[in-house]
Amino acid sequence: MKKSQVAMEFLLTYGWAIAIVVVVFASLFYFGLLDAPKASPTYCRLPAGLTCLDHRYESGKFTFFMKNNLGNSIIVERIESATCDTNRPYEILDNHQAFAVTLNCIEFSGDIDVHYRSMETGLAHTGKGESGVKKSDVGSNDPPISPTTHQNYCKNANNNGLCDILGAFTSQGDYKDRCCGEWGLCCT
Question: What is the CA radius of gyration of the chain?
Fold first, then answer.
């Protein structure tokens, strides 16, 4: 009986210790002290209500897809960054609509200011986001994309209404035609 009691005490003691470590790490992630997106080579975050669906840095251009999830239509008046240049004119975005933004940068890491106006109230807002590219990613070549990944791109574009701007992230041909021909997606 004594051996089983020792084994049980061992398991309970170390079980609690492991549970405490898991809770500590979860708390650190929750409060942003261990920020996984910033640890990745590139990251893109926009203010609440505006979503960065995807992003890519290639040949001095940082391209990201911005989606309006604010609940009403907005007019994007301008997008600014201290280290990049954008020549994008204003854009009207209905709720759940997305569009591509391209910033011309040599190397980018910093704040993105999105200036927009609510079409419902007419009030102007400025949302602060952030994005970054590490030096090691400048001019890097992407690995070949697998057929499964191609199909996932097509599904995501079809589900998010991004079929018309599908080819902005890759130089591997006309995605819209491939999506329609191979998987019956983005055919309209």
Answer: 22
